[in-house]
Structures are given as structure tokens and as C-alpha cells.
Task: inverse folding
């Protein structure tokens, strides 16, 4: 039994997180890019999909367990990579990992984490790693060796940020990087004392502010300083030949994240990707991109059975997970939903978020007359 925290759905956790976080930190977690049409589009696309329930089936025993990338999970989703965790809760990545391990769910470490990969892996459970590419590609190769040695056997490489996204609100709120105190953010920080003491205060007492955790020690720079030479993220020179080289170098499971076009999905299969993630980066990269759930059926038709298809972006209810499975996904990644839980209550909040989604999945399955995730097919949807 998990503590309910007075939260009975993901939206409750979201509202609790919003009250606790300074506006600038909340906006980094919550908002999109430019005119910010994408999050509403993701949500509207899910809401437009309806079920066709079946009756007369025994649903006394419902099994929500699922295999994702050869990892057994208590539910058909894993926690996707989210780089903001360390700003939402002190050592947030560790708390997410602990929560995932407690829930029996795989956890994906973000390449933008503020903690060293070894410290996160020590939390236990099944852990994967997501890589953003630095200007210095040798840093990428060294990180791949490091995370493999730490025990991560699955590498996600994010593709959908070829250039830096336009997040205008960060400049308006004064929360751009490097972060400095200014007239736009000082009062915001001071009026959120629980966050200021519980997060930034604890980092300061530990001797340093958050850094990019997966860089060598001599290249780490705190959030109040600019990135050192070679350590800025750079994806604009990435092509399929370079991706093939990464595939050949990585000995474990290789996943390409951020695919929306069937041709790109087919190209991913051609270079040997073990899995792809159908994702529009949670509407945080290209505004006016199509909703991820709209892209899923065509990709599933093209490469289903040839590679594992994971789905990401906009999941707020257990019914969203069921819809993605019915449209061809082999598994789902959740991002903001568990971050809301983390920001609302640390490890306990993240556990609560996963428990809520699992209970909703179980309830929807019962209403649809199915007892195992393998029985979730497109026949359950109104076409």
C-alpha cells in the first residue's frame, strides 16, 4: 500500500507539484516550445480515441505485467529519460530509480542527469541509459563505456533535437543557463522556501550545485557557470552513418528515440536498432509536430514485428497506455507523469504516480474484458 498524498490522479500530483516549485522550475518541467500547441495536441489526440468494451468475460484476475526490451515490468510502461529530476527534488534521479525499483518498473537514466550514473544504478532495479551527444564525440564514447561498466545494458539515443529548441519562457523568467540571480527570478525563489531549502540548500550543504553528472570530473560545471569546451550538446551533424557507427560500438540493446515518420523507422531497422521510440519529445522540441499517438499506427504497420516499438509523449492516464498498446506499441514510456509525482513528494510521490497509472490500466482492462496486456489489440478501439 502506498501513501496517497491526497492525490487521486496524475493531475492531482501535477497541481501539488506546481504549488511547491518556483515558477521558473515549474515552467521548465511543464511547458513546451514557441506557441506551445503541442501538449494540447498530444492530449486531444488521446482523448479522441475511444474504446469498444466487451462484456461477458471473467476479469477477476487481471495481470498488468509486461515485458519491455526483455525486461519484466509490473506494468506495460517504464520511466523514460527526464533531465529535470535533480531540480525538482534533491538527487531526484536517485529517488526516481528507487521508486521504479520498488514498483518493479524499468527506469531510464537521462544523459542530462545531475547525478553520476554509478550513484543512480546503486539504487537498484533495471536501469537503462539515454545519451545526448556532446560536441566532443570522444566524451560520448567514453560515457557509453562508463554506463555499460555501471550495469546499463540498454542505450537510448535521442534524435529529435537536431538543433536547440526555442523555449522563450526561460528567458522571460530569468531561468536560462547559466543560471544567475536576477530581478526576474530572485523573488520567485525566495517565495518557495521549501524548495529552496530542500533542494538547492541541500546541494549547497553538500559542497556544490548541480552539474552534468555524466561528464568526467574535470569537465563538470555547475548550473551557475557556462558549459566547458566540448561539453555542449550537439546533434546537428548527426546522420544515419553516424548512428550506424554508434550502433556498432554499443554492445547492448540499442534504441533510437524521437521517430515520427515511417521512413525513419524503417531506416532505424536497417542500421540495426533493436527498438525505436515514437515520440515528439513531449511537445518540447518542434511546435506543431503531429501528436505521437497519430504517428504510431503507420509506424507500427511499417516496422511492427521487425523491431520493438515503444511509445512516448503525453501519457497522463492508464487509458493512454492501453490505447498506445492497442495501436501497435510494444511498451510505453512515461515522463512528466512521474516527474509530477517526484516534485510533489519525492520517492513516495513517484511511487504514487506509478500506482495510480497501474490501477487505471487494470480498471480499463477490466472494462474492456481482457485479463492480460497481450490481449490488448486494435479490436478494442472504435475505428
Result:
Amino acid at each position: 500500500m502506498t501513501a496517497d498524498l491526497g492525490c487521486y490522479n496524475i493531475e492531482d500530483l501535477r497541481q501539488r507539484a506546481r504549488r511547491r516549485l518556483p515558477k521558473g522550475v515549474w515552467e521548465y518541467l511543464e511547458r513546451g516550445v514557441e506557441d506551445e500547441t503541442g501538449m494540447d495536441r498530444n492530449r486531444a489526440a488521446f482523448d479522441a480515441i475511444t474504446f469498444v468494451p466487451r462484456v461477458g468475460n471473467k476479469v477477476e484476475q487481471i495481470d498488468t505485467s509486461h515485458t519491455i526490451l526483455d525486461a519484466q515490468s509490473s506494468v506495460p510502461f517504464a520511466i523514460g529519460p527526464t533531465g529535470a529530476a535533480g531540480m525538482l527534488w534533491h538527487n531526484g534521479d536517485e529517488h526516481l530509480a528507487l521508486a521504479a525499483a520498488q514498483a518493479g518498473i524499468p527506469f531510464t537514466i537521462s544523459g542530462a542527469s545531475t547525478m553520476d550514473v554509478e550513484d543512480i544504478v546503486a539504487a537498484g532495479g533495471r536501469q537503462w541509459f539515454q545519451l545526448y551527444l556532446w560536441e566532443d564525440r570522444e566524451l560520448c564514447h567514453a560515457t557509453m563505456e562508463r554506463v555499460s561498466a555501471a550495469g546499463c545494458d540498454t542505450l537510448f539515443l535521442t534524435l529529435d533535437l537536431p538543433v536547440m529548441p526555442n523555449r522563450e519562457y526561460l528567458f522571460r523568467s530569468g531561468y536560462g543557463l547559466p543560471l544567475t540571480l536576477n530581478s526576474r527570478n530572485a523573488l520567485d525563489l525566495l517565495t518557495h522556501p521549501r524548495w529552496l531549502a530542500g533542494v538547492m540548500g541541500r546541494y549547497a550543504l553538500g559542497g556544490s550545485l548541480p552539474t552534468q553528472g555524466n561528464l568526467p570530473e574535470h569537465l563538470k560545471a555547475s548550473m551557475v557557470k557556462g558549459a566547458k569546451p566540448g561539453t555542449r550538446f550537439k546533434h546537428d551533424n548527426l546522420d544515419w552513418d553516424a548512428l550506424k557507427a554508434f550502433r556498432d560500438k554499443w554492445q547492448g540493446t540499442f534504441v533510437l528515440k524521437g521517430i515520427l515518420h515511417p521512413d525513419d523507422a524503417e531506416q532505424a531497422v536497417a542500421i540495426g536498432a533493436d527498438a525505436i521510440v515514437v515520440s515528439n519529445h513531449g511537445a518540447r522540441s518542434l511546435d506543431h509536430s503531429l501528436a505521437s499517438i497519430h504517428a504510431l499506427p503507420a509506424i507500427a504497420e511499417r516496422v511492427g514485428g521487425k523491431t520493438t516499438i515503444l511509445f512516448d509523449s503525453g501519457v497522463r492516464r492508464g487509458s493512454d497506455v492501453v490505447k498506445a498498446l492497442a495501436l501497435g506499441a510494444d511498451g510505453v514510456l512515461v515522463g512528466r507523469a512521474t516527474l509530477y509525482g517526484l516534485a510533489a513528494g519525492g520517492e513516495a510521490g513517484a511511487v504514487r504516480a506509478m500506482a495510480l497509472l497501474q490501477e487505471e490500466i487494470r480498471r480499463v482492462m477490466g472494462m474492456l474484458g481482457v485479463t492480460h496486456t497481450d490481449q490488448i489489440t486494435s479490436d478494442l478501439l472504435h475505428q
Remarks:
- The chain has two domains: 10-168+233-380, 170-219.
- The two ends are 38 Å apart (CA to CA).
- DSSP finds 15 helices and ten strands in the chain.
- The longest strand covers residues 253-259.
